[in-house]
Amino acid sequence: MLEWLLNHNDIVSCHRVITDIFAQCWDLDEAGLNHGELSNAHRHLLLDKMGKLYIVDFESATFRFKVSNVTSICQYLFIRNNPVRKLIWEILGEKDPAHVISALHSYKRERTLRRFENLLRAVL
């Protein structure tokens, strides 16, 4: 993902990819399938040259009542200090971690489409 962002460092492409990542994680959460390793997403997100996203390596995936795909990807992309977050912040502008964390906590308390959309707005 880092390499793709380095080559496609415009706001529109970044928005599209982040929206796609969050949407796929939402779908996994809705299906009750926890990927299990999205907190280290750099090894599990692949983007082709056109920006099509693939979440890969479901070897640790489990079906669980409490899923955390959206939570894990949000922490990786917007909270934890890593090169991908730094690049996203350069492209989109720095995000207020307290605002993102607040939206994330709301989503975790009540996993609804409305809370998901609020979280997406907080990061974009």
What does this structure look like?
The protein has 124 residues and is mainly alpha-helical. The protein has helices at 2-7, 11-31, 69-79, 83-92, 97-109, 113-123; strands at residues 33-34, 45-47, 53-55, 62-63. A hairpin with a 5-residue loop joins strand 2 and strand 3. The longest helix is centred in the N-terminal third of the chain and has 21 residues, at 11-31. The mean pLDDT is 90.
Topology:
Layout: H1 2-7, H2 11-31, E1 33-34, E2 45-47, E3 53-55, E4 62-63, H3 69-79, H4 83-92, H5 97-109, H6 113-123
Helix pairs in contact: 2-3, 3-4, 3-5, 5-6
Which topology does CATH recognise?
Transferase(Phosphotransferase), domain 1
Instruction: Indicate the structural class.
Output: mainly alpha
> What CATH architecture would you give?
Orthogonal Bundle
Q: For the largest beta sheet, what order do the strands appear in spatially?
A: 1-4
- Helix % is 55-70%
Characterize the biggest β-sheet: 2 strands, antiparallel
Helix count from the secondary structure assignment: 6
Shape: globular
- Give the tally of β-strands: 4
**Low-pLDDT stretches:** none
Total domains: 1
Give the SSE string: HHEEEEHHHH
Distance between the termini: 17 Å
Radius of gyration: 14 Å
